[in-house]
């Protein structure tokens, strides 16, 4: 008996998925990531867990982060493996994610 | 720049009776009760409108609204009234479903409804405004104001006119509640008691939804799913709206991080499952969203009242997440409403110290909010346990498959024999099965 699922139709690309969400991008990054701190991180848990896929590992063991398409969910700072790697705030009032079907 | 509403008229002495932070269901219910009691209330929301930042699966259980808005069902922005509720246990190639339908839930006073948070939260906030609360949107509360004795005296915001003073602050700022954290009521991080919910809203024509889900008019179906998260503690859901379907998964944060699986992959699995895929064929993605859920329940609730401040809704871990139930909106409305009432009473007696506000906890204890949480406090442990998550779905599906597989000419095996064999194959000891059964009875009984 097979135990894996074959996908009956292709899922959409991640970019198309994120394009369904409205973001009113603030000039101020509400989350910052200290790539120097990330270098010593052994889990890199943020990379797979962030639902917006905003944490990109770099060749030198750091993290490249872009705050623009963020759900403001809190997953990253909650599971982050190294104190001081993530500084997390909400975007300035009225900015950030705007959901219509949440 | 998003537009900001003009600064509200500040009470003559510059001090609001109450500031409510967050115009989710908890905050709007609190503001509504305070405004009705004749108090000056400022309701602050960081999104451009109430609901813009909020995500849930999709069913609001409306009974608690009876206490706030008579005949709310005549005006609420409903998608569908849930008349069919299914619980599905699955493995990648099997699904066992218990399906219940009642026409009673399709008529007043109704039971559950699907609705979008952008619509529902804005509707409830509208009632608070109608009653006299002042709503300011696009405004982030960035911290607490406290006097030299530590008593909360207001909030700091990111508006130019910054600080806002109030006799009582009600923190309804949701699962990440930075206010409760600042006040030392919640730990800075608590990944073990949090789950991540991700969901897709998928468009399908209304008639197609009605045909595929066997519902008529404004009837709706809700499916709760166990066994669809690759062994990561959690579950899945599918809810019908008028012309969209919400599909998603909820998974333990620590389990997700450890498994190194991307959340949208789990939704893709679920959508591709043979029991789900035919429902969704041809559906078009309208919106993808993510949000955390506080699932720790009773034992992780913070202190609810300190000098000058109350905490309600997800900010106080009041979401009831007990496997077959995921109810947060009704618990938020209930706790917000009681917080508003207790604050109004404390204001009347001119004592908004922790002891003056202690009526809040009493109101919660006398209601479903803390009664249900107390009774179900062990449910999260059981539902998210290794056996329930990893072994039972497969065992149940195999057992049912064996029961219905005709083995002629081999004679049928008896049920207890089948159970024993299936359990053994899934590495479940009958002793543990019995123990979990009893625990289940105790937890849910
Ligand atoms: C995937 C998922 C599925 C769910 N399914 C269901 C379901 O089917 N049924 C159900 O009943 N519950 C469900 N829930 C739970 C439910 O969504 C929550 O319990 C409920 O929304 C809690 O309401 P609340 O008012 O306490 O908080 P929220 O709804 O989170 O509202 C908090 C508000 O405060 C605002 N805010 C936060 N911080 C600030 C600040 N500093 N300044 C200004 N404003 C601020 C936010 O923008 C937000 O509007 C689900 C949750 C998730 C994530
Ligand atoms: S988990 Fe934290 S420390 Fe590790 S890579 Fe991610 S952000 Fe950096
Ligand atoms: S808050 Fe959520 S969406 Fe935003 S970066 Fe962190 S994990 Fe990703």
Automatic annotation (TrEMBL), chain A:
**Keywords in alphabetical order:** Electron transport, Iron, Iron-sulfur, Metal-binding, Transport
Q: Which Gene3D superfamilies match?
A: 3.30.70.20
Output the InterPro entries linked to this UniProt entry.
4Fe4S_Fe-S-bd, Fd_FixX
Pfam families according to UniProt: Fer4_9
Give the superkingdom in one word. Bacteria
Q: Which residues form the 4Fe-4S ferredoxin-type domain?
A: 29-60, 61-91
Give a GO molecular function annotation for the protein. iron-sulfur cluster binding
This one is known as Ferredoxin
UniProtKB/TrEMBL annotation, chain B:
Q: Which UniProt keywords apply?
A: FAD, Flavoprotein, Oxidoreductase
Needed cofactors, names only, are: FAD
Query: Record keywords: Oxidoreductase included?
Result: yes
Under the heading Gene3D superfamilies, the entry gives: FAD/NAD(P)-binding domain (3.50.50.60)
Q: Domain (FixC-like C-terminal): give its ranges.
A: 386-444
Question: SUPFAM superfamilies per the record?
Answer: FAD-linked reductases, C-terminal domain, FAD/NAD(P)-binding domain
Family matches, as Pfam families: ETF-QO_FixC_C, FAD_oxidored
Sequence similarity: Belongs to the ETF-QO/FixC family.
**Record's protein name:** Electron transfer flavoprotein
This protein's species is Carbonactinospora thermoautotrophica
């Amino acid at each position: 008996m097979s135990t894996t699922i074959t996908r009956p139709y292709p899922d959409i690309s991640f970019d198309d998925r994120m394009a369904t969400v409205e973001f009113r991008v603030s000039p101020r990054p509400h989350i910052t990531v200290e790539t120097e701190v990330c270098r010593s991180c052994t889990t890199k848990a943020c990379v797979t867990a962030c639902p917006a896929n905003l944490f990109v590992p770099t060749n030198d063991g750091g993290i490249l982060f872009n705050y623009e398409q963020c759900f403001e969910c809190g997953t990253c700072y909650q599971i982050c493996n190294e104190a001081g790697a993530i500084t997390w705030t909400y975007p300035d009032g009225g900015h950030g994610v705007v959901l219509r079907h949440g | 720049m998003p537009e900001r509403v003009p600064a509200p008229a500040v009470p003559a002495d510059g001090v609001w009776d109450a500031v409510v932070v967050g115009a989710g269901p908890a905050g709007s219910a609190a503001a509504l009760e305070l405004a009705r009691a004749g108090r000056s209330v400022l309701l602050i929301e960081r999104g451009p409108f109430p609901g813009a930042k909020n995500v849930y699966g999709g069913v609001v259980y409306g009974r608690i609204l009876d206490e706030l808005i008579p005949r709310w069902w005549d005006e609420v922005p409903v998608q569908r009234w849930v008349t069919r509720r299914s619980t599905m246990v699955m493995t990648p190639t099997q699904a066992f479903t218990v399906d219940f339908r009642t026409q009673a839930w399709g008529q007043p006073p109704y039971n559950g409804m699907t609705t979008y948070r952008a619509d529902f939260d804005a509707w409830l906030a509208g009632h608070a405004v109608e009653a006299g609360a002042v709503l300011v949107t696009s405004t982030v509360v960035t911290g607490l104001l406290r006097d030299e004795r530590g008593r909360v005296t207001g909030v700091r915001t990111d508006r130019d006119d910054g600080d806002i003073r109030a006799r009582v602050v009600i923190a309804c700022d949701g699962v990440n509640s930075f206010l409760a954290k600042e006040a030392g009521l919640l730990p800075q991080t608590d990944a073990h008691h949090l789950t991540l919910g991700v969901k897709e809203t998928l468009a399908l024509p209304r008639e197609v939804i009605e045909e595929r889900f066997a519902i008529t008019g404004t009837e709706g179906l809700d499916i709760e799913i166990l066994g669809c998260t690759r062994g990561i503690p959690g579950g899945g859901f599918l809810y019908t709206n008028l012309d969209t379907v919400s599909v998603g998964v909820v998974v333990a944060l620590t389990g997700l991080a450890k498994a190194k699986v991307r959340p949208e992959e789990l939704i893709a699995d679920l959508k591709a499952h043979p029991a789900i895929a035919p429902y969704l064929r041809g559906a078009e993605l309208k919106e993808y969203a993510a949000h955390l859920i506080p699932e720790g329940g009773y034992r992780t609730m913070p202190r609810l009242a300190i000098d000058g401040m109350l905490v309600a809704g997800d900010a106080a871990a009041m979401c009831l997440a007990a496997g077959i139930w995921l109810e947060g909106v009704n618990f938020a409305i209930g706790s917000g409403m009681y917080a508003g009432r207790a604050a109004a009473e404390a204001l009347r007696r001119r004592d908004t110290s922790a002891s003056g506000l202690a009526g809040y906890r009493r109101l919660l204890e006398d209601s479903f909010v803390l009664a249900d949480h107390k009774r179900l406090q062990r449910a999260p442990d059981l539902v998210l346990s290794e056996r329930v998550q990893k072994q039972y779905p497969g065992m149940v599906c195999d057992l049912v498959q064996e029961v219905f597989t005709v083995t002629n000419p081999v004679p049928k095996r008896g049920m207890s024999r089948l159970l024993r064999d299936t359990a053994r194959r899934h590495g479940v000891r009958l002793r543990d099965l019995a123990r979990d059964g009893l625990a289940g009875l105790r937890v849910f009984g």
